Amino acid sequence: MSKGGMWAKSIAGGILFCIGGPALVQYIRPTDAELVSRYNPDLQKRSAEQGDRKAQEFDDYVSKLKEWSKSDKSIWYAAQEEQEREKAQRAAERARQKEESRIQREEMRKELLGDK
């Protein structure tokens, strides 16, 4: 076979793989609606109920990423600082609740001792 024929076959094969492969994958890939229709009814119901919540969580995460990217620090450090800040807030909230319950117990104890 001549060099020109070999080049033509190689180019045709390359084009077939580069264009035909993704086209075939796109053709056989099911849409989201087809996937959901294959679910059993319980999963369809759960998916419908949780869809909005998951979309909102994703939007919140993307907005946090945008906020973190505005920082001059790396996104990873900004995310870590955010997690540490949230952890500190949760610890402060637990301490506040613990203090409130302690005060409430003391008041109840005083009431019981004062009545006797």
Automatic annotation (TrEMBL):
Transmembrane segments: none
Name the UniProt record assigns to this protein: Cytochrome b mRNA-processing protein 4
Residue ranges, annotated region (Disordered): 87-116
Role, per record: Essential for the assembly of ubiquinol-cytochrome c reductase. It has a direct effect on the correct occurrence of the Rieske protein, core 4, core 5 and apocytochrome b.
Subcellular location field: Mitochondrion inner membrane
Any matching Pfam family: CBP4
Bilayer topology: Single-pass membrane protein
Biological process terms in GO annotation: mitochondrial respiratory chain complex III assembly
One term under GO cellular component: mitochondrial inner membrane
Top-level taxon in the UniProt lineage: Eukaryota
Recorded family membership: Belongs to the CBP4 family.
